[in-house]
Design a protein that fits this description.
It contains six helices and ten strands; from the N terminus they run αβαβαββββαββααββ.
């Protein structure tokens, strides 16, 4: 089985946990895309009555095109389940999320009764750290983050800028922790 087939299988299995009447957080990423496709099929074929809350404009557009009713996180009092991908999952089930929807993914997840991370076997690691730790920073005050936080905690990093429906966001992708650092410093 290739990686896309594994992602599709994982996505199809994840939607089995979605029940009629649920409010469901829909994450972002390549594995989630397959999950949303499978959810769209259930909505169409089983007349599943759910409400989706997306973590990204891309996922929202995909869900709407498949007939999945969508609301914003501010339009629901809570979510029953959020399904999202991850970049790494360690043996102890700790994980790393990344990408341009990071802040929205956290907001949706914190408002969910349950969160399910869906990954294929390539995302399973013994210890976190192979994937750069994403830190999302808005432009306002970002200079302070660079001056106070990065020099002591980050050995290597790159910064990318992106836009979402709320405006510009900076994503810092880093290899975090020097050999003497044991935790992320606070601002």
């Amino acid at each position: 089985m290739n990686q896309d087939q594994l992602k599709q299988l994982v996505g199809q299995k994840a939607v089995e946990y979605i029940q009629d009447g649920m409010r469901v957080g829909l994450g972002t990423g390549s594995t989630v895309k397959f999950m949303v496709d499978a959810l769209g099929e259930r909505v169409k074929n089983e007349h599943l009555n759910i409400v989706g809350v997306s973590t990204s404009d891309r996922t929202a557009a995909q869900a709407k095109a498949l007939g999945i009713p969508m609301k914003s996180v501010d339009e629901v009092d809570h979510l029953d389940l959020t399904i999202d991908g991850a970049d790494e999952i360690a043996d102890d089930f700790q994980g790393v999320k990344g990408g341009a929807a990071l802040l929205f993914e956290k907001i949706v997840a914190i408002n969910s009764d349950k969160v399910m991370w869906i990954v294929d076997e390539s995302k399973m690691v013994h210890q976190l750290g192979a994937f750069g730790l994403p830190v999302e920073v808005i432009p306002y005050g970002s200079q302070h983050v660079f001056e106070k936080w990065l020099p002591g905690a980050i050995t290597q990093y790159s910064v990318k800028s992106t836009m979402n429906s709320s405006g510009p966001i900076l994503i810092i992708l880093s290899s975090i922790y020097t050999s003497t650092q044991s935790r992320i410093p606070t601002l």
